Amino acid sequence: MITNFILRALDGKITLTVAILLVVAALVPALNLLTTPDSALHIPTYAMSLMGKYLCYALLALALDLVWGYCGILSLGHGAFFALGGYAMGMYLMRQIGSRGVYGNPELPDFMVFLNWKELPWFWYGFDWFPFAMLMVLVVPGLLAFVFGWFAFRSRVNGVYLSIITQAMTYALMLAFFRNDMGFGGNNGLTDFKDILGFPVQADGTRAVLFAMSAIMLSLCLLVASAITHSKFGKVLVGVRDAESRVRFLGFRVENIKLFTFVVSAMFAGIAGALFVPQVGIINPGEFAPANSIEVVVWTAVGGRGTLIGPIIGAILVNAGKSFFTGAFPEIWLFALGGLFIAVTLFLPKGIVGTIRQGWTSRKTLRAAADQEKGRGTALLPQAAE
Amino acid sequence: MRITSLFAAFFALLLVSLAAPSFAQQPVDPKPLIDQLAKANFSQAEDLIGKMAAAGDARVVPVLQAFTDGDLYVRKTDNLVFIGKTAGNGFELVEPLTGESAGQVAKNAVTKIKVNNSLRRAIRSAMGGLTLLSPDRSVRLQAADAVMRSPSSENLELIEAALAKETDAEVKARMEEARAVSVLSSDRSVEEKRDAIQTIKDLGGRNALGILNTISGSIDPALTADVEAAVAALQSEQQLWDMAQNIWYGLSLGSVLLLAAIGLAITFGVMGIINMAHGEMVMLGAYSTFVVQQVIRDSAPALFEWSLAIALPVAFLVTGAVGFLIERGVIRFLYGRPLETLLATWGVSLILQQAIRSIFGPTNQEVGNPSWMTGSFPLGGMTITWNRMWIILFSLSIFFALLFLMKKSAYGLNMRAVTQNRRMASSMGIRTPWVDALTFALGSGIAGIAGVALSQIDNVSPNLGQSYIIDSFMVVVFGGVGNLWGTLVGALSLGVLNKFLEPSVGAVLGKILVLVLIILFIQKRPRGLFALKGRAVEA
Amino acid sequence: MTTIAETRTKSLLYLDNVSVSFDGFKALNALSFVVEPGELRAIIGPNGAGKTTMMDIITGKTRPDTGAVLFEDSVDLTKKDEADISQLGIGRKFQKPTVFESHTVWDNLELALNRKRGVFATLFYTLTPEDQKRIEEILTTIRLTHRRGELAANLSHGQKQWLEIGMLLAQEPKLLLVDEPVAGMTDAETAETAILLKEIAKTRSVVVVEHDMGFIRDLGVKVTCLAEGSVLAEGSIDFVSSDPKVIENYLGR
Fold first, then answer.
1. Is residue B98, in this structure, part of any structural domain at all?
2. What is the pLDDT of residues C159-212, one digit of tens each?
3. Residues of B in contact with A298 (CB under 8 A)
4. Range of the structural domain that residue B23 is part of
5. Is A372 in contact with C126 (Cβ distance < 8 A)?
6. C112, C146, C151 ranked by CB distance to A250: nearest
7. Which of B38, B156, B217, B459 is the least crowded, having the fewest Cβ atoms under 10 Å away?
């Protein structure tokens, strides 16, 4: 049963993507560490960190795609789950600074000393222990998604209403995290990290491992997402997206289906945030900004929602474009991004991958129809959604 | 101390009387009387002062003020009297009545007119008489207020004298109050003071509370209970006023929310379009105001007071036109796909923001307030600022104008027909695309008008719209989509709720709580406060 | 009232005195209605008579303001939601054919199959030979075997109606509610649908809402005519269509 679940994930394109990601996970760090800076093949550390960042964004886009592309829930608050995962990692990293902070307090992070706090707030307990922090990377976003989804899906908040309240959720969290008394560093957030698991965060070796981890976690999440969408559950999910009431009248508990997907997706986003923070060296309340979450939507839309590869491609392409434009023509970037939103919705609603696939399937359907003319079906089992 | 503050009060009064001297009866020119001071001895001077007081010309008040302060000088060359101020090594001379400068002179070119205590007394009563007994009613009122602010036993006599002659009921009441305050700081009998406490208590407000609080320590022990009772009564009254003030602040915030949301109530509530660029329409309206003011400043500064009135149609047309273009260029291809509309209009909002940023720069632009938008006035125990007052009235009038347009006009009928049943409306001969475009332009134009008003109370920057978009959606969703009344009630109640949470939990946490409450509320009533029910909506 | 009390003991579906109103409009007005096990029943009535609202109430989409709705004499349907009611054994076909357009015909049936519907049960579900056989049977019944691998979106309107009926069969319901099954069908398709429904009604109860009088005549079953939210007449098609109230309200003179 379980093996079936896993085997189904290994559809051709997914396997290929995972293979590419694993090669990248090995090759890029190798080219960074094993070549000399003057070599033509050398990848500088900043470029590797940048690519690592893109992979985190890709994972975030994949998370959003699972709920939006497959289940029809347009979350405008996925940045919140990303940021919460990031904060969980940031709290671990803060605790690793120990007495090397500006104030040299072995117990309290600098900002708490600055605020004249005398002891560590209860919710910071345990974050000095890596496994606990990593558990929180999953649990905190998952719990928020669970509580939020429990209420929202049960009372059948749908469509744009849901989008608007997810946006309100991340906005409220942003306001909250800006407050100093929340105990998460207020405006400045968490930064000045030193070590992760005893290795210096800034060192090339650590960066290389973080990059490799990003690629590996992305592949892992991609496999999980693929297993989910290729199962019967995945088909129900698409059913919820296309004809929710039909799913209900078939006897499925739509709220549970949505809730499960929303929680899994939030956890993916949390993982992405946790990998993001050590690579960029900071997490602050700005990550909760509603604009960030909406930007994730456009990555997913560009790549192609309802496909698993699409959001990965979309996130990498759009962010590479962003890096290029903000470097070369900073004035143009927002025009370009705004134009991209409009262009994708008007001219490319299925996104890059979706459009390519559509062309491909329509050819296949033609062939299948031709086969049927000859009096036999193409396959006993119909091809899966992916 | 008290005397100086009394003088300070009189000096403020002087400004008023200089700005608007009013002569209720044929005046005697006081100028010769002033100049006679040059040669007068003390008793002659006292006589002259009495004559000046009798002349009833408030313009002599500063002269008398200068006299007591020892700032009155005689110019040796022509024996004329001037008010002198030390300037460098000499004096700057000022014409006593007009306040015009008469040039600088050396110290030895003038002699000081001497003053003694008996003269000072005469001057004070003359000044009190000039003001408390002034033929001008408003001068008397202000004089009474001045006495109230600086009670003393000397003033008590003045005011009692004035009271005896006063006939105007309102001025008389004000003087009674001023007298009561003075009685408390005099050595009058306990009974008289008890009456005075009652008078002050009846006066009410923060001032009365302040007066009673300051005297409560030094009062006759026999009266302590009276004072405490009066203070308690005033405090509970004050609490009511504070609550009223809070409601006012809430309504004021609510009216801002209403302004921001009202255009959205059309585009989202009626047409069902998620316009994420709505905030940018507000922003464009604010920038239109800025541009209008710039043009007025450059070419017709006299019109500045009218700048907002001019900006209103400009902003409406500019944002309406932009809205029209957005609808024709983007939204019309996306009807029936609300989530896509959301994304596309978000893209539009980014472009508009960046366009404004490129043209005007990223910093805040200075938008001026016309004089009628500045200042405040007291209402009972509350302070009402004019700009908030106008914004509340403005938002309500926009709301009702819109309601009228929707419910009563032929256009409103067409619009409702189109939103309820597009195919049917179209087959009845309504040009649905045209109605769509106009309706969206209308919603955008109203957002622009909102921007004109918001430019008066908020920073005009490219990010202006961003700070309103989420709140606006919350208002519309909370109030109930498709229901204008819901938007009104939603906006005002969210505003008031916010302001009531603020004192206990702080502004930011209050806002967070409101957001959380709305999120929970939507779970309970997914269609808002005033939801439409029925099969058609459920489907 | 005595008739209702008598029928209660053996009824499959029992509606008594059900009323519901939307913003003052009474969609159902003290409606009483009984379906026996194994019965095929047709419902007719003008637009706004409350036919769809009645189905909404039976399937848990709308809650009645007053009245009792019982399934198999014991289950109070007003306390259940759509998923519960579906799992109890009531299937519903919508007015507009509602199938999963981005799934194949086969997948549509697989999803509808009456198996465990929990999150984890569906995550780890594997198609068994038994389920495969069942789906193939249904494909034959609804005459779509040759299009099993096709996306539902590519089916004709009539085929979508059949697919939806097939999905209801896969659910193995005790009671099938079918809303306008032949709307938009060709005459040949309509006749075939009548045969299909009669076939289905051999093993379970079916309630059909239809406007097409010819189709109802083809079915040849007991007819209930609704108007303004309550029952106007009930009986054979000839009895009902000769009732003067029915003629005035619905058929027209």
1. yes
2. 898 899 899 889 889 999 998 888 878 888 888 888 888 888 888 899 998 888
3. 343, 347
4. 2-150
5. no
6. C112
7. B217
